[in-house]
Every structure is written in structure tokens, then in C-alpha cells.
Fold:
Amino acid sequence: MTIFKGLSGVLNLRPEEQKSFRLLFLLSLITGIGLSYYFVAVNTFLIQKASVSNLPYAYIISGLGGVLLIKIYQQRQHKRGIINSYKESVIAFFLIAVCVFFAFINLGDNLSYAVYLAYLGFLFNMPFTIIFALSFSGICSRLYNMSQSKRLLALVGTGEIMASIIGYLTAPLISKLTGSPNYLLLLAAACILPALIPIYWLALTNHEKLSHIMASKTALKKLNLSFFRNERFYLLIAIVSVFSVSAIYFVDYSYLITVRFMSVYSGIEIATILGFFFSIVKVGELVFSFLSGHFLSTKGVKFSILLLPVLLTACFVFALSSSLLFRDEPIYILSFIFLAKFAERVIRKAISTPAIKVLYQVTGPDRLRIEATIEGVLNQVATVISGLLLLLFSGLFVGVEPLLFLTIISSVCLVLFLVWTILSLQLHEKYKKKIWDYLTKVRLDTSIKRKESQEINYQDFSNNLGSLDHKPLSDTLKRALNSIAEFRETGDINQLKTYSPGALSQIESDNKDLFIRKITSSYYSTDNFFHRLLVINFLRAGAQPISTKIVKEIAEISDLNLKYELLSAYNLDPKKLETSDIFYFENLCEKYSNELILAMSAQFDLQGIDDSELQSELKLYTDMLIKILFEVLKVLYDRSAIQVIYEIITNEDNQDMENRLFALELLDNTLNDELKKRLIPIFEPASFDQKIHGLQKFVPVQSESKEKMLKELLMKDFNLVNPSLKEACLIAYYKLTKDDSVLKAFVTSKISNLQSKASELLKNDDRSLKVIMISEFKKTYKLSSLQCSYLFNQAVYTASTKTNKSRSVMKVKIDNSYSVKMGHEHESLIVDTYALALFIDKNQSGA
Structure:
């Protein structure tokens, strides 16, 4: 057990994965050594007893027998469930191995029976390999989600690979010691029975997950030809699978001929060649299995399903070329055929098969039946077809020397693999479409509803504001809301001029370009958030789309909220991005992904602080960075696809983990390689401490003390950290440290909410009328803390002519018609109701 613990530590398994991984690894280890001994025994017997021309008969018999056996397995799985059917398969394999052993020993030397016995032993080889693989992957599909499948499917199979290495290396030695490779069948039978132990413990420790694996007795669809004709995605999987199996049997046939030719050519026994070659194959499988998660996670499904057909095509291009160029030197063509067999076993096991398993994730609740039908029944049919084709070739080219026959087979393999490559490309496109269709349906079924508009009572203030006259505020607020509604319809510049007469009073021009430049210039001339927001809204509503040039110009001086508004307005234009601008937006993706990682790190480091306001602000901060990041992605990629991905990933209500993983898979298939490496780890469904290792490649994040992290956020650029979060950090920092030096620094801040809060904490002042009024706005109009900070800083001003020593007082001039004066004799305020109305309208509309 220490070995398993050490292995799980090396592989950086998550705590919840370790126990199941160890049991699956053990199961893979046990079945692997049993299958490897059986494989060597029956293949050695087949090559010894059957002529080359008769090898296709073995494929045909194996395929026909496989269809029957796998059909029986499917029925047992339907009736008894996957765990019980797995147990029955283990026991059946044990009995068959014993029976085949006694048949080989007693009748193997009889020329009348030897060939038929060879076919009999070979018949069970592939079907049981498939049955064990289907049972194993069925358990994995319930224990692991899509993200875990990419990382772990190949790794849990390393037990089988390690066992096979031992089996193939020891097979020649055992054959010599016992005098016959037939005794390997007894070892296979003895080694397979302990597999019942990990199967039992998997069922016991994962009862809730595995008890639902039993196939539904009320299946909605019959998996017949009509089903595959109507479901193009599954049809393409089936076609690719058939081509894959057919092509692989041609490789296997070429390989077996090569082994026999090499045995005669070199004088080395067939069992020795098989054992030595497959030990090398298994070492390759082991190495590539550890790389499998990296390949699937970084290169994606497309690369993984194309890798094998492309490599095999290359192998047979070289094999064919070498046979034509070096006719007198068989070593070249033999080497490339061995290399093709090596690639087929290694890449298929470590990369192609896990990639195909990922494809099956989108097949829904009928996944096990569909997978068993395609990989079991249809693949066995493909085996029969392959055997018939090879039999035809053997008949056509009977008497042809082996090297010439290998050249002909290489030509056929080349054509098959080219077709396989093309079909794999089409399959990947259908896979992306399948995910898109699925997520679109999920989005429609569980759409995020906009907040329902609520009728607001504009005079519903509490008694905290005493005898203030609320009617001027109420009347002006209604007028402002009507003005905003009109502005949304018409985009009239006069609305903007009315709000900011000082900044826009001189703008008069019939030239659209000049007009837009002047509007943009006003964005620079004032740092007022609400004026800038109105400029963006005006550009959004204007007849002329926002240009990339404008985005580049004003995004740099905008805070996060304005950046989001600007990008969402820019994305309303359906035009395609110019190639010259792609680099700019890709850099923005990298910039904001880095900021998001830092924000997540801060949220993780500060999670121990018992301050609901701080935690809420930190979450809103990361949420805003995510929104900006996805708006940038919309510029670069299909907007509707990115929007669906965003909604699924960020939907926290009744979140289905499988849906989120599908969304990540669609994102993985959409982004370029560089962005994929950056973004997929960010959104993986895992805690930050589990993701930090992968994220450190892009940002050197490390755990910080709470005090240091709060101070870093306080000192960060206001265009990256909003004033509401800074205020929450200031309060939390003072509570933790009681250090008033930071408060003294912020007492002189030009940012009103920070200056006011620092003064309040430092001097223990009572809340001012401004603080009370903002608090009432927050409660009455359902405003966020961030919206309140914007109002505090730039929409509600102290307007007293008398200086109060305990507070900083500012004189302001009422410069727009939506400003309302409210207050008492000694303290009065000027409220910019248009700014307040902007937030009320935004919250009501859900924009």
C-alpha cells in the first residue's frame, strides 16, 4: 500500500481522488498481468500452428465470437449492473483460460485439431480485453468527471502497463522453465482472480456513484441503424472506430508476418521476439501514460485524436518508400512496421483511447450502452470485415514473397490511415458542435433570468434622515429616469450635454468623425465616472460603431467597470476584427488573466477573515475581472459561443459540475494554444491551492500574510482595484493590526469614501449626513457597495459654507439640472440624481 501512496503523491492527486485511484490502479495491475500472459500464450500458439494465409480466419472467428460475447456482456450489464457483470467476466475469463490450457496441452500436437484450437484461444483474446476495458472505463466515468478523466484515465491504466511489462519480460523465461508457453495460460487464470478484491472495494466505497451504473430498463432510444443515421455525431464516432479497427488489424497482420519472417531470418524464437518487443511497447505505454494528462490538457482533444492516424500514415509512407528504394535490405521495411505497431499500441493506449473516452462524455445517460455498442459490437464487426479483406488479399497474392506482400499491405494501410485522419478531423468538428448544442440547450433550460423590475417608492426613506424634504429628490429622480429611458431610445447628445454642460457645451459639429473625437476628448477632460459612463452609453447608442482606435485610447484611463462597459459596447458591432488588432486583444487577455490570478490569490489568502463585506467585495472583484476577460474573448472568438461558456461557468445557482466541464471543453476547443494554457487552469473546478502550481507559470503568486495582502490591495492602482474594495480592505486592515499610520495616510486621500472612512476610524466620529444618506440610498434602491462608493465620491457633495473641524468639507457648484440640495441648517448635501438614476436604471434593467 506504501507504493500506491507514494505513486499518488508523485502524481499530485487530490485528496478525494486518492482512494479510488489506488483501487483502480490495483485493478488495472491485476487484469493487466493476466491478459498479458494469455496474449503471449495464444498468439505464440497461433503463429506456430496457423499459416500466414490462414491468419485472417483467426480475425474473422475472433470478430464473430466477440460480437456474441459482448452482446452477452451487455445483457448481463443491463440485468445485473456493471459491478456484477465485471465480476462475472473475471470468473468467465478464469474458466476459459483453464479450459484453453487443457485443450492446448492434450490436443495441441494433433495436426487435425491444432489450427482450430489456435483459433479458439485467439477468439477470446480481444473480446475479453474489450470487456474488461468497457467495465473499467464505465467505473471511471462515474468516479471521474471530464477534467479528471483528462488527467487520470491514462494514469489509472499504468497498473496494467506495469503488469504487462513484467508479464512480457517473464513470459520467455517461464516458457523455457516449463518447456512450453502453454503454461502461461494457467498463470493468466491464477492472476485474474484477485481482480475481484479491488472490484468489491470499489463497489463498497463508492456505492452511491456506482449503484446508478445499471443500464436503464426504460431506455428511450434503441441503438439500431436508425439511431446512428439520425445522430450524426455517434455515426461519425462509429465510422471512425470501424476505420480505426480495420486499419489496426492490417497493421497487426503486417506485424505478425514480420515477426514470423524475422524469426526465420534471425533464428530467434517467436515467443522471445513477442516478449521482448511487447516489453518495449509497455515501457513506451508507461512513459506516454504519464504524459497523457499533459497532452490532453494542453494540446486538446483534436491533437490527441489525430496523433495516432498521422503517425501511422508517416510510418507507412516510410515503409513503402524504403521497400521501393532498398529492395535487398528487408531491415528497413521491417523496422517501420515494428515502429507502426509500437505507435499503434503506445499512442492508442496512452493518448487516443483517453481522448475518445472524453468524446463519449457528451453522450448523456446512455453513454455506457453507446460506448459498448460502438467499441464492443461494431468494433467486432469491423474485425470480421478486416479478416474478410485480409483473407481476400491473402487469396489474391498467394505465393507472393513476404517482402512484396508487406509492400502491398503497406500501400493499403497508407490509404486507410489517410481516410482515418480525414474522418477524425470531421469527428472533432462534430464534437465541438455537439458540445455547443448541449450547452445551448442547458442555457435555454436554466437561463439566468434578469431581475424583475420593481416599482420603487421614491419617498421610502427611514427616519434616519429626519425632517429632510424628500419631494425634490423624488421628482428630480423620476425626471432623470425618464431622461435615461429617452436617451436609450434616441441617443440624443443633448442628454449628455444636460448632464455635463461644462465639458460638452462647446461641442457643435456636423462632421461625425470630428464629433466623435470631441466626445472622446471630453472623456479625458474629466475623471467623473458618470460622465465617462454616459460617453460610453452615447457611443453605444450612436449610429457609428465604436472603433478599435477609441477602445485603445480610452480603455487605459478607465477603471474596471468602465472597461467592461466599453468592451461590451464594442462587442455590439458584428464586424470582424482586423488581423493587425488581434495581438492587442490577445495581450489584453493575458493581462486580465494575470490580474484574475492575483485576485484569486488574494481571495484565497484572505478567506480566513470573518468579514462578510470584505469577502463579498473580493468576490465581486474577481467576478468583474472574469466579465472583462470574457468580453475580450468575444472580440477574438465567436461571441455567442463565448457568452454561453461564460453563463455556464459563472452560474452558481444549482450548478451542474458536468455542464461546467462541458463549457470548459468547448472553451478548450475554441481558444488558441497559448490562451488555452492560461485560461483553462483558471476555471477548472478545483480549489485555488490545487490550481496554484499550474498558475505560477504565468504569475509568480505565493501565499501572503493577511496584513500584507490587504496592504497590497490598498496600494494598488485605482484602475485595477475599485474604491469599494479598498474601503473594505482599509477597515479589515485596521481591525487586524490596529495600525493607525495607514489611516493617517488615507485621511488626506482625494478619494472621498476612503478619506471619510479613515477619518471615521481614526477619530471615532459619528456618521455624517452624507454617510447616512448613502446608506439609505443603498437600502432603498438596492444598490451595491461599489455603486454607493461611486455615489459617495462623485455624486453626493457636502455643500456647507461652515467648516466643521471634525470633517473635511468641500464647496461645490451645482452644474446640472439634476442636482438637488438637501440638508439641515448646519450641514447640507448636493445630490446628483442623474447619477443615482443611472444605477437604479441599470439594476432594474439587468443590463
